[in-house]
């Protein structure tokens, strides 16, 4: 079996991003995954323990005093060292803002081919082929780096697979500490989770509100329906621009792309940029006063009506039928 | 400057800049707001002035941009298209260049800076229709036509009484001036009247063509999306021909205004006739386009809530102001009648 | 300070977008090409620094076909000083590896302190170019910044940026020369005024080919092997609320086992 | 640079050159009314075309390699304006120069170009266009004239109609059906036919204005070499569509042609006393406006085409001038109604009869070269993007 390196992204508090499950699943489809992680000196054991839960049996751990201070550089150096040691067919990295920085630099340093935002991975002979969902799922494309090593960024939530836990064993990875210019992180704060709601990017259900919600207070209605259905909360760009909700809830071309089982659009007209971020949802429901709203063109079930009368009644119905 | 037909790069670039600005800053809600409260949107006025529009035709020596009328004619179309309810055209295309050309040193010094910067607003009775002017009540400066002469007045020198306007967002007022006010000190130099008339007419024509262009665009969009008998109504030949006729009227009118601006800028012999051609054809086009637009929109176009009527009524106002179709056609007929020996007043060089 | 802002022309996102079924690249023929909104914000960020310190120069750099000159003109009319247009038919459809090599080569031709780019273009969504450039140039980078400021003046100071991404708020500090990318949370671009539009034509635009940059062996690292279009979604049931819509919706959820 | 402002020396010089040459070479009596009637007319027109050729003005828009001057639309329009201004006769070989020549340049073989282009330029061959048929008017693709291939020859049977100049043309540029099985747009070929071939008979159609400028042409087992096909066999529709765009496009007539008509209307208005009447002045003014609009429309189209943005104005062009022309003669007829007693008074007008004939002819212009209703469909569908009608 060929080796596939899987880059592990830790939050500032040392948590593993849940999207690692997707990376491991994709890695398994072409080879055997080997985790690569950088931690502060002394943290190797504790992180290794937690990685088994993601199905990673083997982990290369680099300890570096620069972790948490230097931006991408420690992870880049660990992956380059791991690649030199293990000669992998591919290096998989989460398609997050930080992950893409790591991928960009690793690809240049290894002279590898870079596949971006993949949702699937398979081998064709010796070639590694990545699959991409383009323009909100309107197209599926496949691309390959041919004979080169592949560095790929992986869309979190693209497999939905639950990993089978194993016991992870760690080996130490030596990385040098030569100084190259890098941005220094002087402060890092994790967003407080405001509720027990699922994370938007990987949620199975999403309830989103648009400009027609009218106010930040009005957005409570969106949140109440989300809670009744156990859904994550999303928003259109118009709602974000109007200041009803923070930007990390934005669904669409310049926000998060989601592909849930159920997507409910409340007071969202469905501009093409919004549709690009949600039209691969399995079931789409829309409530909008404007019968000409383009969202109705793609909705499995559309209600022409006022969200302020329909949604409270719907919450009551859902709770009554529970 | 060679852009007699508006295809000149500068003209297109200024118009594109203005269109992008209006797309962002003058959406339907802002157009609608001007209709409901009827007050001048001073914030929007300030923003458009800051773009350089009000001083565009003034020379660089007085703080303007020194562009020629043919460089601005497409931008004026965009104002009509946008639905912005502002006295921009009178200020930028007529009052500012006329003061610079025909004003005394004192008049230039006291009026031009504020008008170019947008701090002051101008109204003009030139060719508008009697002693009425658009936004005269809101104006700080009035260009008044009286006995074939032009006078430049500041706010203390004239009073206004509001009169009915078919377009509530383009407020009209009748101006009155004590005869003692008018003097050599207020009068502009000889030649100002004809020049100002020509400018007012070509600029109004371009503005009106922009209004027609918006109505036609709304109509085409509606015909593509509105379905009856299971298909888009734009697929019916009867509807197509209504719209095609409207398009021909509008597209053949636009270059007339472009040429009139060029003839004005170059002082060509047929400048006055060109302005009349521009205004008569723009009025024709607005009527044909407006009628087709209303017919194709059907019932929805007849509601206050649908935006079509904003442009339709502005079109109706402009159709009659600055010399009606009939007025300009009679001028052209008379010019042709008197042109037997081949003067250059109508068709130069022939 | 000398700033270079990267500019990209993209298909208008307000129109339908298509992929060319042969190449898998964005079909640029179907929609009007416009300057990418995020590029406009990047230019705005550079011009804001120029507003604060008049000695700052802002150079625009783009790689694209002849029509991309329109995007440069837009930026010049906003207030940038000059522009570089890498224009070469051989670069049509270049992948990010080639693009980063070409732009890095162009950046090496002139002195600069800061490169500002958008975090991701609306047509590519790769979001890796700024970091690839930084890597090729051997400089620090900070991507996805929602805001940034300069500390300590033009000489010897730092750039301090904030980003909020993937559930973490961070403050990053880096020196010069460096590459940053900004998000759409940065301020909206200014509108070019008429004076800017009139002046833009007189500003210099340097046109370069790949050969001018000494690059001849440009082979893509990645090739597209297939493109499939998904059938468009069909509209389903639509009802007009007469008071019973909530119940009908709940029935619909139940029928799909969503409640 | 727009054509009509003449701010560059080049364009202004060109106008002077054309004006000077025409003044020096056009026989004065050719511009007189009635000069082109009678048996000598055709001879005189051919001689004039030869004069134009010798002066280098036969086809200024043709590329230099084919004997033209390679001039663009703006220069061409100036030539046309000056040509109309001096009142020179209508071009005899318009189909050859505007339609067949450019089509051969685009779709013909080298041998075909050598055989025909120079002869067209010298007016040694006058051409007519054989597109319309009794059952294929606006719906041109329904044409039925059949060309069966036998060896290296077509055997052609069928009928063309509304063919201008068929009575004196040497050659016809015809569309014929070569594959009756194919979908109707696909089985058509563009074929060049020598009008002297046995089996061709021409019958002038007497029109409502009493004239016979259009003819019916009948084909009875007419043998034509397959080598006379332009473009591929069965690909004639594509060849013809390019040709029709040329026919509707800019450059064939300028506003100048209508100025004398305006002057005539103006004198009629004055001589009847209608000139004191506001309504009559308004009507005259309407025509001044329309002719000016046509002028500026053409100017705009030229300006845009020189910027490389040649638009769909071709349809607007034909629609506009044909309606304008019809309305101009309509006004004249109204004024002449009051003047019927003076209908032969050439001091007022060159004969009521001639005006009436032109009035009727101006109604034909709304029909030929794609009826105005077809033009409106083209505008609606191709310019404005309205959906096609279900047929």
From TrEMBL, chain A:
Summary of subunit composition and partner proteins: Heterodimer of an alpha and a beta subunit.
SUPFAM superfamilies xref list: Adenine nucleotide alpha hydrolases-like (SSF52402), DHS-like NAD/FAD-binding domain (SSF52467)
Keywords: Electron transport, FAD, Flavoprotein, Transport
UniProt key word Transport: yes
One function term, GO molecular function aspect: flavin adenine dinucleotide binding
Cofactor: FAD
Organism domain of life: Bacteria
PROSITE patterns membership: ETF_ALPHA
Sequence ranges assigned to domain Electron transfer flavoprotein alpha/beta-subunit N-terminal in this UniProt record: 4-194
InterPro entries in UniProt: DHS-like_NAD/FAD-binding_dom, ETF_a/b_N, ETF_a/FixB, ETF_asu_C, ETF_asu_C_CS, Rossmann-like_a/b/a_fold
Any Gene Ontology biological process: fatty acid beta-oxidation using acyl-CoA dehydrogenase
Function: The electron transfer flavoprotein serves as a specific electron acceptor for other dehydrogenases. It transfers the electrons to the main respiratory chain via ETF-ubiquinone oxidoreductase (ETF dehydrogenase).
Family listed: Belongs to the ETF alpha-subunit/FixB family.
Binding positions for FAD per the UniProt entry: 211, 236-237, 250-254, 267-274, 288, 306-307
Name this polypeptide is given: Electron transfer flavoprotein subunit alpha/FixB family protein
Organism: Ruicaihuangia caeni
Gene3D superfamilies documented for this protein: HUPs, TPP-binding domain
UniProt cofactor note: Binds 1 FAD per dimer.
Automatic annotation (TrEMBL), chain B:
Gene Ontology molecular function: any one: flavin adenine dinucleotide binding
Positions of the Acyl-CoA dehydrogenase/oxidase C-terminal domain: 199-335
Enzyme Commission number(s) of this protein: 1.-.-.-
SUPFAM superfamilies tied to this protein: Acyl-CoA dehydrogenase C-terminal domain-like, Acyl-CoA dehydrogenase NM domain-like
Cofactor or coenzyme needed: FAD
Keyword Protease: no
Keyword Oxidoreductase in annotation: yes
Domain spans labelled Acyl-CoA dehydrogenase/oxidase N-terminal: 11-119
Family per similarity comment: Belongs to the acyl-CoA dehydrogenase family.
Record organism: Ruicaihuangia caeni
Keywords noted in UniProt: FAD, Flavoprotein, Oxidoreductase
Protein name, entry field: Acyl-CoA dehydrogenase family protein
Superkingdom classification of source: Bacteria
Automatic annotation (TrEMBL), chain C:
GO molecular function: electron transfer activity
Domain Electron transfer flavoprotein alpha/beta-subunit N-terminal per the UniProt entry, residue ranges: 23-217
InterPro entries membership: ETF_a/b_N, ETF_b, ETF_beta_N, Rossmann-like_a/b/a_fold
Residue ranges of the TM segments: none
Record keywords: Electron transport, Transport
Aminoacyl-tRNA synthetase in keyword set: no
The protein's assembly and partners: Heterodimer of an alpha and a beta subunit.
Function of the protein: The electron transfer flavoprotein serves as a specific electron acceptor for other dehydrogenases. It transfers the electrons to the main respiratory chain via ETF-ubiquinone oxidoreductase (ETF dehydrogenase).
PANTHER family: ELECTRON TRANSFER FLAVOPROTEIN BETA-SUBUNIT, ELECTRON TRANSFER FLAVOPROTEIN SUBUNIT BETA
Family: Belongs to the ETF beta-subunit/FixA family.
Designated name of the protein: Electron transfer flavoprotein subunit beta
Annotated source species: Ruicaihuangia caeni
Organism lineage string: Bacteria, Bacillati, Actinomycetota, Actinomycetes, Micrococcales
Automatic annotation (TrEMBL), chain D:
Gene Ontology cellular component terms for the protein in this record: plasma membrane
Keyword Oxidoreductase listed: yes
Keyword match Lipid metabolism: no
Stated name of the protein: Acyl-CoA dehydrogenase family protein
Residue stretches making up the Acyl-CoA dehydrogenase/oxidase N-terminal domain: 14-122
Entry's Gene Ontology molecular function annotations: flavin adenine dinucleotide binding; oxidoreductase activity, acting on the CH-CH group of donors
Xref: Pfam families: Acyl-CoA_dh_1, Acyl-CoA_dh_M, Acyl-CoA_dh_N
Ranges for domain Acyl-CoA dehydrogenase/oxidase C-terminal: 234-384
Organism: Ruicaihuangia caeni
Family annotation (InterPro entries): Acyl-CoA_Oxase/DH_mid-dom, Acyl-CoA_Oxase/DH_mid-dom_sf, AcylCo_DH-like_C, AcylCo_DH/oxidase_C, AcylCoA_DH/ox_N, AcylCoA_DH/ox_N_sf, AcylCoA_DH/oxidase_NM_dom_sf, Mycobact_Acyl-CoA_DH
Keywords: FAD, Flavoprotein, Oxidoreductase
Cofactor: FAD
Family of this protein: Belongs to the acyl-CoA dehydrogenase family.
The Acyl-CoA oxidase/dehydrogenase middle domain, residue ranges: 128-222
């Amino acid at each position: 079996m060929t080796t596939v390196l899987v880059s592990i992204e830790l939050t500032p508090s040392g948590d593993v991003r849940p999207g690692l499950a997707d990376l491991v699943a994709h890695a398994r489809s072409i080879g055997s995954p080997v985790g690569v992680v950088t931690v502060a000196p002394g943290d190797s054991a504790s992180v290794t323990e937690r990685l088994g839960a993601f199905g990673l049996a083997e982990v290369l751990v680099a300890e570096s005093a620069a972790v948490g201070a230097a931006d991408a550089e420690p992870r880049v150096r660990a992956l380059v060292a791991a690649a030199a040691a293990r000669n992998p067919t591919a290096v998989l990295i989460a398609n997050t803002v930080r992950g893409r920085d790591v991928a960009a630099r690793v690809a240049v340093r290894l002279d590898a081919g870079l596949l971006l935002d993949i949702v699937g991975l398979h081998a064709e002979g010796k070639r590694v082929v990545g699959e991409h969902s383009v323009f909100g799922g309107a197209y599926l494309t496949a691309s390959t780096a041919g004979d080169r090593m592949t560095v790929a960024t992986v869309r979190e939530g693209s497999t939905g697979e639950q990993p089978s836990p194993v016991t992870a064993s760690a080996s130490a990875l030596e990385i040098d500490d030569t100084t190259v210019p890098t941005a220094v992180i002087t402060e890092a704060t994790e967003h407080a989770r405001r509720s027990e709601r699922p994370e938007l990017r990987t949620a199975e259900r999403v309830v989103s509100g648009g400009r027609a919600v009218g106010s930040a207070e009005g957005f409570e209605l969106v949140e109440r329906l989300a809670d009744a259905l156990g859904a994550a909360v999303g928003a259109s760009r118009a709602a974000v621009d109007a200041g009803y909700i923070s930007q990390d809830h934005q669904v669409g071309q310049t926000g998060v792309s989601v592909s849930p089982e159920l997507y409910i659009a409340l007071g969202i007209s469905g501009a093409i940029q919004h549709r690009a971020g949600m039209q691969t949802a399995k079931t789409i429901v829309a409530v909008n006063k404007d019968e000409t709203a383009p969202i109705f063109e793609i909705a499995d079930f559309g209600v022409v009506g006022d969200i302020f009368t329909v949604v409270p009644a719907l919450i009551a119905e859902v709770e009554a039928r529970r | 400057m060679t852009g007699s037909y508006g295809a000149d790069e500068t003209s297109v670039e200024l118009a594109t800049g203005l269109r992008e600005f209006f797309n962002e800053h003058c959406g339907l809600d802002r157009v609608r707001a001007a209709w409901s409260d009827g007050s001048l949107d001073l914030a929007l006025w300030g923003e458009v002035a800051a773009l350089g529009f009000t001083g565009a035709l003034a020379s660089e020596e007085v703080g303007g941009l020194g562009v020629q009328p043919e460089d601005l004619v497409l931008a004026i179309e965009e104002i009509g298209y946008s639905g912005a309810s502002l006295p921009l055209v009178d200020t930028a295309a007529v009052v500012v260049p006329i003061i610079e050309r025909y004003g005394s040193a004192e008049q230039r010094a006291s009026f031009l800076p504020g008008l170019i910067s947008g701090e002051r607003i101008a109204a003009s009775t030139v060719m508008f229709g009697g002693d009425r002017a658009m936004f005269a009540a809101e104006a700080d400066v009035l260009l008044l036509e009286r006995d074939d002469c032009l006078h430049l007045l500041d706010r203390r020198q004239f009073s206004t009484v509001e009169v009915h306007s078919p377009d509530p967002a383009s407020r009209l007022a009748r101006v009155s001036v004590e005869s003692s006010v008018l003097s050599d000190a207020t009068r502009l130099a000889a030649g100002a009247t004809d020049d100002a008339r020509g400018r007012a007419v070509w600029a109004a024509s371009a503005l009106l063509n922009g209004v027609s262009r918006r109505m036609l665009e709304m109509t085409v969009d509606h015909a593509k999306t509105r379905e009856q008998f299971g298909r888009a109504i734009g697929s019916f030949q009867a509807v197509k021909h209504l719209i095609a006729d409207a398009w021909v009227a509008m597209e053949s009118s636009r270059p007339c205004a472009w040429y009139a601006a060029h003839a004005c800028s170059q002082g060509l012999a047929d400048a006055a006739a060109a302005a009349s051609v521009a205004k008569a054809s723009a009025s024709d086009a607005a009527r044909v386009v407006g009628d087709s637009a209303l017919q194709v929109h059907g019932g929805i176009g007849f509601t206050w809530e649908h935006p079509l009527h904003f442009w339709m009524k502005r079109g109706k106002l402009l159709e009659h102001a600055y010399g009606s179709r009939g007025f300009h056609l009679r001028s052209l007929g008379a010019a042709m009648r008197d042109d037997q020996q081949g003067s250059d007043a109508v068709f130069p060089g022939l | 300070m000398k700033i270079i802002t990267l500019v990209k022309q993209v298909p208008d996102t307000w129109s339908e977008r298509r992929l060319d079924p042969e190449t898998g690249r964005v079909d640029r023929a179907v929609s009007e090409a416009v300057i990418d909104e995020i590029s406009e914000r990047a230019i705005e960020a550079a011009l804001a620094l120029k507003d604060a310190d008049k000695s700052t120069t802002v150079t625009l750099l783009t790689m694209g076909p002849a029509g991309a000159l329109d995007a440069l003109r837009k930026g010049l009319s906003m207030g940038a000083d000059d522009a570089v247009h890498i224009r070469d038919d051989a670069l049509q459809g270049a992948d990010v590896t080639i693009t980063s090599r070409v732009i890095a080569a162009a950046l090496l031709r002139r002195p600069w302190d800061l490169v500002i780019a958008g975090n991701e273009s609306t047509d590519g969504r790769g979001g890796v170019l700024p970091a690839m450039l930084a890597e090729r140039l051997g400089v620090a980078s900070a991507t996805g910044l929602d805001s940034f400021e300069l500390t300590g003046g033009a000489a010897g100071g730092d750039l301090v940026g904030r980003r909020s991404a993937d559930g973490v708020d961070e403050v990053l500090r880096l020196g010069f020369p460096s590459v940053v990318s900004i998000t759409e949370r940065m301020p909206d671009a200014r509108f070019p005024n008429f004076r800017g539009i009139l002046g833009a034509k007189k500003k210099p635009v340097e046109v370069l080919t790949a050969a001018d940059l000494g690059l001849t062996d440009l082979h893509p690292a990645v090739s597209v092997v297939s493109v499939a279009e998904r059938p468009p979604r069909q509209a389903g049931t639509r009802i007009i609320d007469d008071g019973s819509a909530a119940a009908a919706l709940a029935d619909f959820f139940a029928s799909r086992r969503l409640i | 640079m727009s054509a009509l402002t003449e701010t560059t020396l080049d364009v202004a010089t060109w106008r002077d050159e054309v004006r000077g040459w025409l003044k020096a070479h056009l026989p004065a009596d050719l511009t007189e009314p009635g000069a082109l009637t009678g048996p000598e007319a055709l001879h005189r027109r051919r001689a004039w075309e030869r004069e134009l050729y010798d002066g280098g003005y036969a086809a200024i828009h043709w590329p230099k390699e084919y004997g033209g001057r390679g001039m663009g639309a703006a220069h061409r329009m100036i030539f046309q304006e000056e040509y109309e201004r001096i009142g020179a006769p209508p071009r005899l070989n318009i189909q050859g120069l505007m339609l067949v020549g450019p089509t051969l340049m685009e779709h013909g073989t080298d041998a075909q170009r050598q055989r025909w282009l120079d002869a067209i330029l010298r007016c040694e061959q006058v051409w007519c266009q054989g597109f319309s048929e009794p059952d294929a008017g606006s719906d041109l693709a329904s044409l039925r004239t059949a060309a069966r291939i036998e060896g290296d020859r077509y055997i052609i049977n069928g009928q063309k109609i509304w063919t201008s100049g068929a009575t004196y043309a040497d050659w016809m540029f015809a569309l014929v059906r070569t594959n009756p099985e194919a979908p109707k747009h696909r089985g058509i070929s563009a074929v060049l036919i020598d009008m002297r071939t046995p089996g061709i008979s021409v019958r002038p159609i007497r029109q409502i204005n009493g004239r016979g400028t259009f003819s019916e042409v009948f084909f009875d087992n007419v043998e034509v070499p397959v080598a006379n096909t332009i473009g591929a066999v069965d690909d004639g529709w594509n060849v013809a569509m390019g040709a029709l765009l040329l026919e509707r496009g800019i450059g064939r007539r300028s506003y100048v042609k209508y100025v004398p008509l305006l002057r005539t209307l103006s004198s009629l208005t004055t001589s009847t006393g209608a000139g004191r009447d506001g309504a009559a002045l308004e009507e005259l003014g309407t025509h001044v406006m329309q002719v000016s609009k046509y002028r500026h429309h053409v100017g705009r189209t030229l300006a845009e085409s020189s910027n490389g943005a040649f638009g769909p104005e071709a349809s607007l062009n034909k629609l506009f001038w044909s309606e304008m022309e019809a309305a101009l003669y309509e006004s004249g007829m109204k004024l002449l109604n009051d003047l019927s007693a003076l209908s032969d008074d050439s001091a007022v007008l060159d004969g009521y009869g001639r005006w009436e004939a032109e009035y009727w002819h101006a109604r034909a212009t709304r029909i030929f070269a794609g009826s105005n209703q077809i033009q409106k469909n083209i505008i609606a569908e191709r310019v404005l993007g309205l959906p096609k009608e279900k047929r």
